[in-house]
Specification:
The protein has helices at 29-35, 50-64, 99-108, 125-135, 164-171, 173-178, and strands at 2-7, 10-15, 39-44, 66-68, 82-84, 86-91, 114-116, 138-143, 156-159, 181-185, 193-195, 205-210. By secondary structure, the protein is an alpha/beta fold. The strands form 4 sheets. A 5-stranded mixed β-sheet has the order 9-8-12-10-11. It has a 3-stranded parallel β-sheet with strand order 3-6-7, covered by helices on one side. The termini are far apart.
Length: 211
């Protein structure tokens, strides 16, 4: 099941999958995890088989050729191994005084980030929005036409490290080809600072392209 998680002025697509169970995993799950930008592993913190459930989920990651980005890649890592954010959500926090979460953390291990949440009360879900967006390493960039106010309602979502030229390519291919310079508001020395095509953008920058 696909859904959208709103974070500020952007939407993050989430895909809810069937549970991973002993002896049966939907055959499409490894490919889905491999192609995703990030993976959320959801556990029931009140269950008594957390270590076993974690083992099944780690097996799925191995089959999906996904490597948690919190761990350094092994020296002999094959080229198809995908480093990406892998977060563990401990659901049913509303039934926990912290004891179950502590046991779950121990069963998960120190190499995967763990966040207690509750789909009933909403505990932890608001903070998860910002954490997830940050872990996906994306930035929001707003366009501005010369002589007009910036469009602050529909940002372009780019990868961290994107440049002015990358942004121009998202606006229009021809603009990127003819780009002379840009003016920048946000993370600039001063408003309207002139920058070249190689300037690296930051989250919530406002860019005015000149071709």
């Amino acid at each position: 099941m696909r859904g959208l998680m709103k974070f500020g002025d952007v939407q993050v697509q989430l895909v809810d999958t069937p549970a991973v169970a002993e002896g049966h995993t939907e055959p499409y799950l490894p490919n889905l995890a491999h192609d995703a930008d990030g993976v959320l592993l959801v556990l029931d913190v009140t269950a008594d088989d957390t270590p076993h459930a974690v083992g099944l989920l780690r097996e799925l990651l191995a089959r999906a050729r996904v490597w948690p980005r919190t761990q350094p890649l092994p020296p002999d890592a094959p080229p198809f191994l995908q480093p990406k954010p892998v977060l563990v959500l401990g659901n049913k926090a509303e039934d926990d005084d912290g004891t179950f979460a502590a046991l779950a953390r121990e069963g998960i291990g120190a190499d995967l980030p763990f966040f207690p949440v509750s789909t009933v009360t909403g505990e932890g879900l608001e903070a998860l929005r910002e954490i997830l967006f940050r872990e996906l390493k994306r930035i929001r960039v707003y366009g501005k036409e010369p002589g007009k106010k910036p469009d602050l309602e529909r940002p372009f979502v780019l990868s961290e490290g994107a440049t002015i030229h990358d942004f121009a390519g998202h606006v229009h291919k021809e603009i990127a080809e003819r780009l002379k310079f840009a003016r920048l508001w946000g993370h600039a020395k001063f408003d309207g600072q002139q920058v070249d095509r190689h300037h690296v953008l930051s989250d919530k920058d406002v860019v005015e392209l000149h071709a």
